[in-house]
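User: Hello! My lab partner asked me to get a predicted holo structure for this protein. The small molecule is pyridoxal-5'-phosphate, SMILES included with the sequence. Please write out the C-alpha coordinates.
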Amino acid sequence: MWPTADLRSDTMTAPTPAMRQAMAAAEVGDDVWGEDPTVRRLEERGAALLGKPAALFLPSGTMANQVAIHVHCRPGDELICEERSHVYCFEGGAVARLSGTQVQPLRAADGFPGRDQVAAAVRADDPHFPRSRLLVIENTHNMAGGRVASVARVRALCEVARQHGMKVHVDGARLYNAAVALAVEPAALVAEVDSTTLCLSKGLGAPVGSLLAGGEEFVAAARRARKAFGGGMRQAGVLAACGLLALGEAEERLAADHRRARELAAGLAELPWAKVDVEATETNIVMLEPGVDDVEPLLQALERQQVRAARAGAHRIRFVFHRDLPEDAVARCLAVCRAFRTGVPA
Ligand SMILES: *Cc1c(COP(=O)(O)O)cnc(C)c1O
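Assistant: Hello! Below are the C-alpha coordinates for the protein in complex with pyridoxal-5'-phosphate.
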Protein backbone atom coordinates (compact mmCIF):
# COMPACT_ATOMS: atom_id res chain seq x y z
CA MET A 1 0.00 0.00 0.00
CA TRP A 2 1.13 3.51 -0.79
CA PRO A 3 1.09 6.07 1.96
CA THR A 4 -2.10 8.13 1.77
CA ALA A 5 -1.78 11.57 0.22
CA ASP A 6 -4.28 13.52 2.28
CA LEU A 7 -4.89 16.79 0.45
CA ARG A 8 -8.23 17.51 2.09
CA SER A 9 -6.69 20.23 4.22
CA ASP A 10 -3.36 21.58 5.44
CA THR A 11 -4.55 20.72 8.94
CA MET A 12 -3.82 17.04 8.16
CA THR A 13 -0.30 17.04 9.56
CA ALA A 14 1.12 15.15 12.52
CA PRO A 15 3.72 16.77 14.80
CA THR A 16 7.26 16.11 13.53
CA PRO A 17 9.71 14.10 15.66
CA ALA A 18 11.40 17.42 16.54
CA MET A 19 8.06 18.78 17.72
CA ARG A 20 7.44 15.75 19.89
CA GLN A 21 10.87 16.23 21.44
CA ALA A 22 10.19 19.91 21.98
CA MET A 23 6.91 19.03 23.67
CA ALA A 24 8.68 16.64 26.00
CA ALA A 25 11.31 19.22 26.87
CA ALA A 26 9.07 22.31 27.06
CA GLU A 27 9.31 24.46 30.15
CA VAL A 28 5.74 25.04 31.34
CA GLY A 29 3.62 26.85 33.91
CA ASP A 30 0.00 27.89 34.33
CA ASP A 31 -0.68 30.15 31.36
CA VAL A 32 -3.99 31.44 32.75
CA TRP A 33 -1.82 32.87 35.52
CA GLY A 34 0.58 34.19 32.89
CA GLU A 35 3.26 31.79 34.08
CA ASP A 36 4.02 29.59 31.09
CA PRO A 37 7.42 30.73 29.79
CA THR A 38 7.09 28.84 26.49
CA VAL A 39 3.71 30.40 25.71
CA ARG A 40 5.16 33.80 26.57
CA ARG A 41 8.04 33.21 24.19
CA LEU A 42 5.65 32.20 21.43
CA GLU A 43 3.47 35.25 22.03
CA GLU A 44 6.51 37.56 21.93
CA ARG A 45 7.77 35.91 18.78
CA GLY A 46 4.31 36.15 17.21
CA ALA A 47 3.97 39.84 18.09
CA ALA A 48 7.37 40.57 16.53
CA LEU A 49 6.59 38.55 13.42
CA LEU A 50 3.27 40.32 12.95
CA GLY A 51 4.70 43.75 13.84
CA LYS A 52 2.22 44.32 16.68
CA PRO A 53 2.80 45.33 20.31
CA ALA A 54 1.28 42.11 21.67
CA ALA A 55 -0.06 38.68 20.77
CA LEU A 56 -2.13 35.96 22.38
CA PHE A 57 -2.01 32.17 21.95
CA LEU A 58 -5.40 30.51 21.49
CA PRO A 59 -6.62 26.96 20.92
CA SER A 60 -7.95 27.57 17.39
CA GLY A 61 -8.19 30.00 14.53
CA THR A 62 -11.93 30.08 15.00
CA MET A 63 -11.58 31.21 18.59
CA ALA A 64 -8.95 33.76 17.60
CA ASN A 65 -11.29 35.29 15.00
CA GLN A 66 -14.30 35.24 17.29
CA VAL A 67 -12.43 36.72 20.24
CA ALA A 68 -11.27 39.54 17.94
CA ILE A 69 -14.80 40.13 16.67
CA HIS A 70 -16.09 40.09 20.24
CA VAL A 71 -13.60 42.76 21.28
CA HIS A 72 -14.22 44.98 18.23
CA CYS A 73 -18.03 44.73 18.03
CA ARG A 74 -21.01 45.25 20.33
CA PRO A 75 -24.39 43.50 19.97
CA GLY A 76 -26.33 45.11 17.13
CA ASP A 77 -23.17 46.12 15.29
CA GLU A 78 -22.41 44.90 11.80
CA LEU A 79 -19.24 43.53 10.29
CA ILE A 80 -18.46 43.50 6.59
CA CYS A 81 -16.68 40.59 4.94
CA GLU A 82 -16.55 38.67 1.69
CA GLU A 83 -19.46 36.25 1.37
CA ARG A 84 -17.40 33.04 1.48
CA SER A 85 -15.34 34.16 4.48
CA HIS A 86 -14.48 31.65 7.17
CA VAL A 87 -15.78 33.95 9.94
CA TYR A 88 -19.17 34.01 8.23
CA CYS A 89 -19.55 30.52 6.71
CA PHE A 90 -17.45 28.11 8.72
CA GLU A 91 -17.50 29.17 12.37
CA GLY A 92 -20.88 27.81 13.42
CA GLY A 93 -22.67 31.13 13.30
CA ALA A 94 -20.43 32.36 16.11
CA VAL A 95 -20.59 36.03 15.09
CA ALA A 96 -24.30 35.96 15.99
CA ARG A 97 -24.08 33.41 18.79
CA LEU A 98 -21.21 34.86 20.73
CA SER A 99 -21.20 38.56 19.87
CA GLY A 100 -24.77 39.41 18.82
CA THR A 101 -23.22 40.99 15.77
CA GLN A 102 -24.55 40.69 12.24
CA VAL A 103 -22.72 40.22 8.98
CA GLN A 104 -23.04 42.08 5.72
CA PRO A 105 -21.43 39.77 3.16
CA LEU A 106 -20.01 41.20 -0.07
CA ARG A 107 -19.28 39.22 -3.21
CA ALA A 108 -15.78 39.41 -4.70
CA ALA A 109 -14.55 36.85 -7.22
CA ASP A 110 -11.02 36.73 -5.82
CA GLY A 111 -12.12 37.07 -2.19
CA PHE A 112 -11.27 40.74 -1.71
CA PRO A 113 -14.00 43.38 -2.09
CA GLY A 114 -12.91 46.66 -3.64
CA ARG A 115 -12.71 49.99 -1.84
CA ASP A 116 -15.85 51.32 -3.47
CA GLN A 117 -17.75 48.16 -2.67
CA VAL A 118 -16.84 48.49 1.00
CA ALA A 119 -17.62 52.21 1.04
CA ALA A 120 -21.05 51.52 -0.47
CA ALA A 121 -21.77 48.88 2.18
CA VAL A 122 -21.13 51.21 5.13
CA ARG A 123 -24.38 52.14 6.89
CA ALA A 124 -25.41 55.74 7.37
CA ASP A 125 -25.53 57.00 10.94
CA ASP A 126 -29.25 56.53 11.47
CA PRO A 127 -31.22 54.73 14.21
CA HIS A 128 -32.71 52.41 11.59
CA PHE A 129 -29.35 50.87 10.79
CA PRO A 130 -26.79 48.73 12.54
CA ARG A 131 -23.45 50.37 13.15
CA SER A 132 -20.79 49.40 10.62
CA ARG A 133 -18.01 48.49 13.03
CA LEU A 134 -15.54 46.09 11.49
CA LEU A 135 -14.11 45.01 8.15
CA VAL A 136 -12.74 41.45 8.04
CA ILE A 137 -10.19 40.55 5.35
CA GLU A 138 -9.28 36.86 4.88
CA ASN A 139 -5.71 36.64 3.55
CA THR A 140 -5.13 34.22 1.94
CA HIS A 141 -8.77 33.66 1.00
CA ASN A 142 -9.54 29.98 1.38
CA MET A 143 -12.70 29.49 -0.69
CA ALA A 144 -11.40 31.78 -3.43
CA GLY A 145 -8.59 29.23 -3.83
CA GLY A 146 -5.88 30.61 -1.56
CA ARG A 147 -5.85 34.00 -3.28
CA VAL A 148 -3.53 36.66 -1.91
CA ALA A 149 -4.22 40.33 -1.18
CA SER A 150 -1.15 42.51 -1.74
CA VAL A 151 0.16 45.07 0.74
CA ALA A 152 -1.34 47.84 -1.43
CA ARG A 153 -4.77 46.21 -1.49
CA VAL A 154 -4.85 45.69 2.25
CA ARG A 155 -3.73 49.30 2.73
CA ALA A 156 -6.50 50.59 0.44
CA LEU A 157 -9.10 48.60 2.39
CA CYS A 158 -7.75 49.89 5.70
CA GLU A 159 -7.99 53.43 4.37
CA VAL A 160 -11.63 53.12 3.42
CA ALA A 161 -12.45 51.45 6.74
CA ARG A 162 -10.71 54.26 8.65
CA GLN A 163 -12.59 56.90 6.69
CA HIS A 164 -15.79 55.38 8.01
CA GLY A 165 -14.63 54.84 11.57
CA MET A 166 -14.38 51.08 11.19
CA LYS A 167 -11.75 48.71 12.57
CA VAL A 168 -10.03 46.11 10.41
CA HIS A 169 -9.39 42.48 11.37
CA VAL A 170 -7.39 40.08 9.22
CA ASP A 171 -8.29 36.40 9.31
CA GLY A 172 -4.71 35.37 8.71
CA ALA A 173 -5.13 31.63 9.13
CA ARG A 174 -2.80 31.44 6.10
CA LEU A 175 -1.24 34.90 6.35
CA TYR A 176 2.23 33.36 6.23
CA ASN A 177 1.34 31.75 2.91
CA ALA A 178 0.37 35.17 1.59
CA ALA A 179 3.64 36.68 2.82
CA VAL A 180 5.71 33.94 1.20
CA ALA A 181 3.80 34.22 -2.08
CA LEU A 182 4.38 38.00 -2.16
CA ALA A 183 7.94 37.79 -0.80
CA VAL A 184 7.15 40.28 1.98
CA GLU A 185 7.30 40.03 5.77
CA PRO A 186 4.03 38.95 7.40
CA ALA A 187 4.12 42.24 9.35
CA ALA A 188 3.99 44.24 6.11
CA LEU A 189 0.62 42.69 5.28
CA VAL A 190 -0.96 43.72 8.57
CA ALA A 191 0.84 46.99 9.30
CA GLU A 192 -2.33 49.06 9.18
CA VAL A 193 -4.89 46.63 10.57
CA ASP A 194 -6.15 46.57 14.15
CA SER A 195 -5.84 42.83 14.66
CA THR A 196 -4.71 39.71 12.87
CA THR A 197 -4.68 35.99 13.43
CA LEU A 198 -2.10 33.43 12.31
CA CYS A 199 -2.81 29.68 12.42
CA LEU A 200 0.09 27.53 13.54
CA SER A 201 -1.84 24.35 12.79
CA LYS A 202 -2.38 24.81 9.05
CA GLY A 203 0.55 24.77 6.62
CA LEU A 204 2.96 25.61 9.42
CA GLY A 205 2.38 22.10 10.73
CA ALA A 206 1.94 22.54 14.49
CA PRO A 207 -0.71 20.27 16.03
CA VAL A 208 -2.79 22.95 17.78
CA GLY A 209 -3.09 26.69 18.12
CA SER A 210 -3.38 30.14 16.63
CA LEU A 211 -2.02 33.56 17.42
CA LEU A 212 -4.03 36.76 17.65
CA ALA A 213 -2.01 39.98 17.50
CA GLY A 214 -2.83 43.65 17.95
CA GLY A 215 -2.31 46.60 20.27
CA GLU A 216 -1.67 46.20 24.02
CA GLU A 217 -5.20 47.22 24.98
CA PHE A 218 -6.77 45.05 22.32
CA VAL A 219 -4.79 42.00 23.43
CA ALA A 220 -5.60 42.63 27.09
CA ALA A 221 -9.31 42.67 26.18
CA ALA A 222 -8.82 39.60 23.99
CA ARG A 223 -7.22 37.78 26.94
CA ARG A 224 -10.37 38.42 28.99
CA ALA A 225 -12.62 37.28 26.13
CA ARG A 226 -10.49 34.17 25.58
CA LYS A 227 -11.08 33.18 29.22
CA ALA A 228 -14.82 33.81 28.91
CA PHE A 229 -14.96 31.68 25.74
CA GLY A 230 -13.24 28.83 27.59
CA GLY A 231 -9.92 29.18 25.80
CA GLY A 232 -7.67 29.77 28.80
CA MET A 233 -5.26 26.83 28.79
CA ARG A 234 -2.98 25.78 31.64
CA GLN A 235 0.39 24.17 30.80
CA ALA A 236 -0.02 25.12 27.14
CA GLY A 237 3.75 25.38 26.70
CA VAL A 238 3.74 21.84 25.32
CA LEU A 239 1.71 23.20 22.39
CA ALA A 240 3.49 26.52 22.14
CA ALA A 241 6.81 24.65 21.81
CA CYS A 242 5.53 23.16 18.55
CA GLY A 243 4.37 26.58 17.40
CA LEU A 244 7.86 28.01 17.95
CA LEU A 245 9.40 25.26 15.83
CA ALA A 246 6.75 25.72 13.15
CA LEU A 247 7.51 29.44 12.86
CA GLY A 248 11.21 28.72 12.52
CA GLU A 249 10.69 26.62 9.41
CA ALA A 250 7.80 28.48 7.85
CA GLU A 251 9.29 30.13 4.79
CA GLU A 252 10.96 27.16 3.14
CA ARG A 253 8.07 24.90 4.06
CA LEU A 254 5.37 27.04 2.57
CA ALA A 255 7.36 27.87 -0.56
CA ALA A 256 7.64 24.12 -1.23
CA ASP A 257 3.86 23.72 -0.82
CA HIS A 258 3.24 26.59 -3.23
CA ARG A 259 5.53 25.03 -5.86
CA ARG A 260 3.73 21.72 -5.65
CA ALA A 261 0.31 23.36 -5.85
CA ARG A 262 1.40 25.20 -9.01
CA GLU A 263 2.71 21.97 -10.46
CA LEU A 264 -0.61 20.23 -9.87
CA ALA A 265 -2.59 23.17 -11.28
CA ALA A 266 -0.41 23.27 -14.40
CA GLY A 267 -0.81 19.52 -14.92
CA LEU A 268 -4.57 19.66 -14.44
CA ALA A 269 -4.86 22.63 -16.80
CA GLU A 270 -3.68 20.37 -19.63
CA LEU A 271 -6.79 18.20 -19.31
CA PRO A 272 -9.47 19.36 -21.72
CA TRP A 273 -12.33 18.93 -19.23
CA ALA A 274 -10.63 20.46 -16.22
CA LYS A 275 -11.28 24.04 -15.22
CA VAL A 276 -8.38 25.23 -13.10
CA ASP A 277 -6.82 28.67 -12.98
CA VAL A 278 -3.05 28.26 -12.88
CA GLU A 279 -2.37 32.00 -12.48
CA ALA A 280 -4.83 32.15 -9.58
CA THR A 281 -3.03 29.27 -7.85
CA GLU A 282 -0.97 31.66 -5.77
CA THR A 283 -0.39 29.61 -2.64
CA ASN A 284 -1.02 26.04 -1.39
CA ILE A 285 -4.62 25.56 -2.56
CA VAL A 286 -5.75 24.19 -5.92
CA MET A 287 -9.40 24.43 -6.92
CA LEU A 288 -10.52 22.09 -9.68
CA GLU A 289 -13.85 22.20 -11.49
CA PRO A 290 -14.07 18.89 -13.34
CA GLY A 291 -17.10 20.02 -15.35
CA VAL A 292 -19.37 17.29 -13.98
CA ASP A 293 -22.68 17.46 -12.13
CA ASP A 294 -21.28 15.54 -9.22
CA VAL A 295 -17.66 15.45 -8.10
CA GLU A 296 -18.15 12.27 -6.04
CA PRO A 297 -16.95 9.79 -8.74
CA LEU A 298 -13.70 11.71 -9.13
CA LEU A 299 -13.22 11.89 -5.36
CA GLN A 300 -13.74 8.12 -5.22
CA ALA A 301 -11.31 7.49 -8.09
CA LEU A 302 -8.72 9.52 -6.18
CA GLU A 303 -9.49 7.64 -2.98
CA ARG A 304 -8.85 4.31 -4.74
CA GLN A 305 -5.27 5.50 -5.30
CA GLN A 306 -5.10 6.72 -1.70
CA VAL A 307 -5.39 10.35 -2.63
CA ARG A 308 -7.83 12.36 -0.58
CA ALA A 309 -9.25 15.68 -1.72
CA ALA A 310 -12.21 17.67 -0.43
CA ARG A 311 -15.46 18.72 -1.98
CA ALA A 312 -15.61 22.54 -2.16
CA GLY A 313 -19.17 22.99 -3.37
CA ALA A 314 -21.21 20.76 -5.67
CA HIS A 315 -18.94 21.13 -8.69
CA ARG A 316 -15.56 21.84 -7.21
CA ILE A 317 -12.72 19.91 -5.57
CA ARG A 318 -10.08 21.41 -3.32
CA PHE A 319 -6.52 20.12 -2.98
CA VAL A 320 -4.41 21.63 -0.19
CA PHE A 321 -0.65 21.13 0.08
CA HIS A 322 1.22 20.67 3.34
CA ARG A 323 4.30 19.05 4.85
CA ASP A 324 2.95 15.54 5.36
CA LEU A 325 2.43 14.48 1.75
CA PRO A 326 4.29 11.69 0.00
CA GLU A 327 6.80 12.68 -2.71
CA ASP A 328 4.58 11.42 -5.50
CA ALA A 329 1.38 13.18 -4.38
CA VAL A 330 1.18 15.45 -7.43
CA ALA A 331 2.01 12.65 -9.85
CA ARG A 332 -0.63 10.42 -8.32
CA CYS A 333 -3.31 13.14 -8.48
CA LEU A 334 -2.48 13.78 -12.11
CA ALA A 335 -2.50 10.11 -13.04
CA VAL A 336 -5.97 9.63 -11.56
CA CYS A 337 -7.31 12.80 -13.15
CA ARG A 338 -5.85 11.92 -16.57
CA ALA A 339 -7.56 8.54 -16.44
CA PHE A 340 -10.83 10.06 -15.26
CA ARG A 341 -13.25 10.32 -18.20
CA THR A 342 -11.03 8.23 -20.48
CA GLY A 343 -12.18 5.04 -18.78
CA VAL A 344 -8.60 3.79 -18.47
CA PRO A 345 -7.94 3.06 -14.80
CA ALA A 346 -4.96 4.84 -13.23
C1 LIG B 1 -8.84 26.98 9.25
C2 LIG B 1 -9.26 28.38 9.14
C3 LIG B 1 -9.67 29.11 10.27
C4 LIG B 1 -9.91 28.50 11.62
O1 LIG B 1 -8.98 27.69 12.12
P1 LIG B 1 -9.32 26.52 13.16
O2 LIG B 1 -8.03 26.45 13.89
O3 LIG B 1 -9.61 25.33 12.31
O4 LIG B 1 -10.46 26.94 14.01
C5 LIG B 1 -9.99 30.44 10.10
N1 LIG B 1 -9.93 31.02 8.90
C6 LIG B 1 -9.56 30.36 7.80
C7 LIG B 1 -9.51 31.08 6.49
C8 LIG B 1 -9.21 29.02 7.87
O5 LIG B 1 -8.86 28.37 6.76
